[in-house]
Each structure stands twice: as structure tokens, then as C-alpha cells.
Amino acid sequence: MAKKIVAGNWKMNKNLQEGIALAKELTEVVKNPNCDVIIGTPFIHLASVAEVIKGSCIQLSAENCANKASGAYTGEVSAEMVKSTGAEYVILGHSERREYYAETPEILKEKVELALANGLKVIFCIGESLEEREANKQNEVVKAELAGSVFHLSAEQWKNIIIAYEPIWAIGTGKTATADQAEEIHAYIRSCVAEVYGAEAAAETSILYGGSCKASNAPELFAKPDIDGGLIGGASLKAADFKGIIDAWG
């Protein structure tokens, strides 16, 4: 069975002091959850938040890492640096990175390999735009994104990959894929994994839904057989909202 996971992606929100306060609050309200809980914070928060959540059930993720190991890349943060803060995960391939920072499948492939080489687990994001969804191309889009950046990995490496399906048209828009729409594409993604790594590996791969997931719709989404949790944006910025989603695994 795939692990149940609720992961937060803070994006570019919260200054350092606010981030530390939110992490502290989460350690107080999230106790003995029925799923793995991960928070993805900005780079500058990682080391401080790692200290705050030490000994709690909450795990830490970066929101990105560089596609180079080290060197003269001013302003970049390597996978090794991320790992050294105490983070265990990194979010890669988010639609915002693909769109605003021109991250190609090849760049993401390099990032994934460096993350894994440095002992990080990868939350790899895929998903289609509204135009692609309206043209009924969502399946070929997600398959191409997987093939372009992660399907070259060995079976051993694949064990450290979590997939996050995010319909781009539902991120921060308040629109959500219906639970049936989400389940349909999650099942398709799992079938793509099965083609490459086999049915057992596919069954063990966590596939998270992202795209305006909140406490009110999480129970219906999480009840679907191929939805193993959520990658949460806006609703991860308030402890009560985030806990509401975690409690959907109650």
C-alpha cells in the first residue's frame, strides 16, 4: 500500500519569524496523525524549522533545489545544502517553476538525480493547463512529464519518488477537479508507473492531489482509491486549516 501523505507547500510566504511560529504551532496541534505530514518551506526557513520540528511527527521539505552540484551559481541552493539543513524532501517540477522559471524536463531530470544522490526524497509535480484539459490532452501531458524527468530512474531510486498531480487550472483558483476527475487521472498515472516499474511498485507509489484542496473537500478526495493524500498550498499557511486536511485521514 502507498503511504498516506499530507504535504504543505508554503511557496513564497511567511518571513522567517512567522515561519518558525507556524511550524511551532503545527507541532502543538498535529499529534499522532493517520498519515505522514510534511511541510515545504522557503530555503531560508529550513534550518530553523528543522530545529523546531525535531522530535515531532512533522517532516521537512524544500520547495526546490539547483540542477548543479556546486560552484559559481550565485543565489542557487544545491541539493546537498538542502539535505544539510535537516530537510528530508524536496518539491520539484511545480507548475510555477516550470512556467515562471522555464524549468524544462531536462533541467528537472538533473535536479531529481542530484536530490536522490544527496539522500532527499522527491515530491515530483505534474499536471495539465486548462487549455490541455479542454483539449482532453491531460493523459498525454502527465505521461510526457513523467517520461521526461523521472521514468529513467532505477527501481531502487523510484522508491524515493512521490508524485503530486496538480491540475494547473485548479491551483489557487478555487476551482478543484471533482473527486471523480482527480481519481480518473490518478488511476491513469498509477497505470503509467506500473508500465515502467511493475504493478507492485505502482501500488506502493504515493500519488498526491494538489489544486485547491481544503478541509471541506479533502475527505471526498482522500476516499478515492488512487488518491494517497494532498500537496497543499494556501491551506497549509494556517495551522487550523492544515490540520483540518490532515484530519481527513481520521
What descriptive keywords fit this protein?
globular; single chain; 250 residues
Word description of this protein:
With 250 residues, the chain is of the alpha/beta class. Helix content is 42%, strand content 15%. The protein contains twelve helices and eight strands. The protein has helices at 16-29, 46-53, 79-84, 95-100, 105-117, 130-134, 138-149, 155-158, 179-197, 199-204, 218-222, 239-246, and strands at 5-9, 36-41, 58-62, 89-92, 121-126, 161-165, 207-209, 229-232. It has an eight-stranded parallel beta sheet with strand order 7-6-5-4-3-2-1-8. α1 packs parallel to α2 and α7 (138-149) runs parallel beside α9. The radius of gyration is 17 Å and the shape is globular.
Indicate the topology.
Blueprint: E1 5-9, H1 16-29, E2 36-41, H2 46-53, E3 58-62, H3 79-84, E4 89-92, H4 95-100, H5 105-117, E5 121-126, H6 130-134, H7 138-149, H8 155-158, E6 161-165, H9 179-197, H10 199-204, E7 207-209, H11 218-222, E8 229-232, H12 239-246
Parallel strand pairs: 1-2, 1-8, 2-3, 3-4, 4-5, 5-6, 6-7
Percentage of residues assigned to helices:
40-55%
What's the number of extended β-strand segments? 8
Q: Report the β-strand fraction as a percent range.
A: 15-25%
Continuous helix count: 12
Quick recap of the structure?
The protein is of the alpha/beta class. It has helices at residues 16-29, 46-53, 79-84, 95-100, 105-117, 130-134, 138-149, 155-158, 179-197, 199-204, 218-222, 239-246; strands spanning 5-9, 36-41, 58-62, 89-92, 121-126, 161-165, 207-209, 229-232.
